């Protein structure tokens, strides 16, 4: 069938309708043509316009929507800031890129977060709601950008058309070297009803 990615770009032998193009690529890959550029192109076609849910166990951390214009919105619903139970709710927007199965979101803006703390939080963490309320947009944006990008930055690794792995201790739990999972919620070839899994590896707790 020739170089499939080039065929698609040139419009040779591929239906104009993208849904048909997905089927064409899928058939080509399943028939043994496993060139990486074919798989990457196929993945890229099915990624834009998709929505993904990030979870750690039963806790939904965020819902990511990757738009076709390479912008994204991440709505964090239960972001764990500290081991003792300091949770944040905020919205992040930015741009995303996809290269060889790795998705990199780059944050641009953040909404002012609301903060809730558990009874087990220490005295410093119990001050977070009032401290955050007093911050300027520039101050809390810098704080959140530094926090969500801590340790490994955010790079999501595609495992399939409907699942991505994320390594970031701040995003997934209070441990270093923790892998979380994003599961496709909607979009091209979305799957439903799948539970995400989180695998913990040894590491030190963050304080």
Descriptive account of the structure:
The chain is of the alpha+beta class. The chain folds into two domains: 4-47, no CATH class; 50-188, Lipocalin, CATH 2.40.128. The protein has six helices and ten strands. The protein has helices at residues 4-10, 18-30, 36-47, 128-134, 137-148, 169-172; strands at residues 50-56, 59-66, 71-82, 86-99, 102-110, 114-117, 156-160, 163-167, 178-186, 199-200. It has an eight-stranded antiparallel barrel with strand order 1-2-3-4-5-7-8-9. A hairpin with a 2-residue loop joins strand 4 (86-99) and strand 5. Helix 2 runs antiparallel to helix 3 (36-47). It is elongated and about 60 Å long.
Q: By helix and strand content, what is the structural category?
A: alpha+beta
- Classified by CATH, the class of the largest domain is Mainly Beta
Mean pLDDT: 73
- Please name the CATH architecture of the largest domain: Beta Barrel
Could you list the spans in which at least 5 consecutive residues all have pLDDT below 50?
Answer: 190-207
**How would you characterize the largest beta sheet?**
8 strands, antiparallel, barrel
β content, as a range?
35-45%
Count every beta strand, where a strand is a DSSP E run of 2 or more residues: 10
**Rg measurement, Å:** 19 Å
Q: Describe the global form.
A: elongated
Strand order of the largest sheet: 1-2-3-4-5-7-8-9
Number of helices: 6
Rounded to the nearest angstrom, the distance between the terminal CA atoms is 55 Å
Q: What is the domain tally? A: 2
Order of helices and strands: HHHEEEEEEHHEEHEE
Helix content: 25-40%
CATH topology of the largest domain: Lipocalin
């Amino acid at each position: 069938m020739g170089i499939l990615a080039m065929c698609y770009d040139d419009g040779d032998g591929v239906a104009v309708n993208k849904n048909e193009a997905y089927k064409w690529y899928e058939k080509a890959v399943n028939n043994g043509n496993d060139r990486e550029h074919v798989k990457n192109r196929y993945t890229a076609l099915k990624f834009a316009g998709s929505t993904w849910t990030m979870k750690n166990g039963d806790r939904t951390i965020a819902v990511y929507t990757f738009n076709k214009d390479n912008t994204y919105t991440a709505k964090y619903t239960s972001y764990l800031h500290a081991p003792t139970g300091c949770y944040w709710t905020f919205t992040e927007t930015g741009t995303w890129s996809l290269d060889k199965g790795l998705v990199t979101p780059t944050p641009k803006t953040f909404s002012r977060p609301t903060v809730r703390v558990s009874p087990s939080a220490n005295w410093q963490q119990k001050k977070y709601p009032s401290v955050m309320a007093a911050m300027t947009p520039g101050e809390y944006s810098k704080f959140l950008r530094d926090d969500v990008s801590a340790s490994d930055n955010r790079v999501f690794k595609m495992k399939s058309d409907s699942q991505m792995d994320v390594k970031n201790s701040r995003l997934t739990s209070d441990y270093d070297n923790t892998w979380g999972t994003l599961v496709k919620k909607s979009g091209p070839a979305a799957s439903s009803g799948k539970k995400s899994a989180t695998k913990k590896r040894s590491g030190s707790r963050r304080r």
